[in-house]
Amino acid sequence: MSGSLAFDEYGRPFIIIRDQERKSRLTGIEAHKSHIMAAKAVAGVLRTSLGPKGLDKLLVSPDGDITVTNDGATILKQMDVQHQIAKLMVQLSQSQDDEIGDGTTGVVVLAGALLEQAEKLLDRGIHPIRVADGYEMAATVACEHLEKISEGFKVTPKDREDYRKLREYELQKFETMVKQVKDTGANLVICQWGFDDEANHLLLQRKLPAVRWVGGPEIELIAIATGGRIVPRFEELTKEKLGTAGTVRELSFGTTKEKMLVIEDCNNSRAVTIFIRGGNKMIVEEGKRSIHDALCVIRNLVKDSRIVYGGGAPEISCSLAVAEAAKKISTLEQYAMKSFSEALESVPLALAENSGFAPIHTLADIKSRQIKEKNPRLGIDCLNKGTNDMKTQSVIETLSSKRAQILLAVQLTKMILKIDDVRGSADQV
Ligand SMILES: Nc1ncnc2c1ncn2[C@@H]1O[C@H](COP(=O)(O)OP(=O)(O)OP(=O)(O)O)[C@@H](O)[C@H]1O
Ligand SMILES: [Mg+2]
């Protein structure tokens, strides 16, 4: 054990232990370094999964279940992460998943790069708070630039108008339906078809629990068991046609947390919306995740139709813009902004690396071409299509996703930089 001898104010000797592994508490710059290391480790795992040529991960759960996936949020969720800061990275990916649904790998790669760059700045003696402030400024520049290079995507105004009208109509319809059901005195609805989350929310508000997508045979069984009648139209609902059951409860069991609804003796099955077939369970699961990501992108486009082009092109363009803005800053934050600009390059670098290109060469080439050709759509030609113009390749990403990635990654980086002490609940003060 290495350590050094010191004396307290009464002259009594004590030993300061330098042995890092045994220390549960880290403070100051040591804490920052250790946090950055943990965050970098998590980002390092996801780096190779980024992009169309990204590799999959095979994850084995404690009871032997296997997941093969490329989805950042899923990889992190299934990894048994212990380190507190690494857990924050897992949550970061989850936030992107909740907010946007896609871009969960990219956001972690970006956050990892931001922290890696921050480490260098700390080594040069720049205070963590100044780094955080510089990053904040850079993020503002990057987001403004993103909007500048974004383009409208053809979700026609008519589509939007229709969408809005449809929603209003839907809402009105739901209100009447819920009222009709309540008027009969029913306190549970079982429906053979689906109703969307909005209706579900309304039902919940009106305190009318409802079960959707109950299969044909099951709904018949429930009808038989409860003595209820299946009615095809809301207008036909009357008090006499209601069934009764003692209790209805939801059970969740097993390690897979599968849920089941129990209505006295008969139970019903789960909701299915898209039918996916595959050679084995793992492929189907990954298919589901891909469809979920794709559906999220569509939803985001309906909400905000602005897009940027992918393949790392927006990151390169923003990196150039931030580097340019940094030159005009006279304070210390200039360095943090430069680092931010470098961190943005982590995405195109990873894409190039994962596609088997020499990363630095490819990036340098595209960077210079973006400037020379004044074209922010130039990115990594991952699929070897012969052009770097992502517009020609039709590789698009939503503006909202890119912006969320930058904002969330910076938010987390700033948070980690502001932590200089970690204590477990068992640690003594
Ligand atoms: N055909 C393509 N050519 C070049 N780049 C592409 C292509 N397809 C996707 N990309 C880029 O790959 C990146 C997205 O990779 P990926 O979908 O693996 O990760 P993610 O979206 O960050 O996370 P996840 O999909 O796991 O939630 C984006 O930068 C996107 O622009
Ligand atoms: Mg994706």
From TrEMBL:
Q: Which InterPro entries match?
A: Chaperone_TCP-1, Chaperonin_TCP-1_CS, Cpn60/GroEL/TCP-1, GroEL-like_apical_dom_sf, GROEL-like_equatorial_sf, TCP-1-like_intermed_sf
The molecular function terms in GO held by this entry are: ATP binding; ATP hydrolysis activity; ATP-dependent protein folding chaperone; unfolded protein binding
**Keywords annotated in UniProt:** ATP-binding, Chaperone, Nucleotide-binding
**Highest taxon, organism lineage:** Eukaryota
- Coiled coil, from the record: none
Which Pfam families does this entry report, sorted A to Z? Cpn60_TCP1
PROSITE patterns, per the entry: TCP1_1 (PS00750), TCP1_2 (PS00751), TCP1_3 (PS00995)
Say which family it is in. Belongs to the TCP-1 chaperonin family.
- Recorded protein name is CCT-epsilon
What's the source species for this entry? Magallana gigas (Pacific oyster)
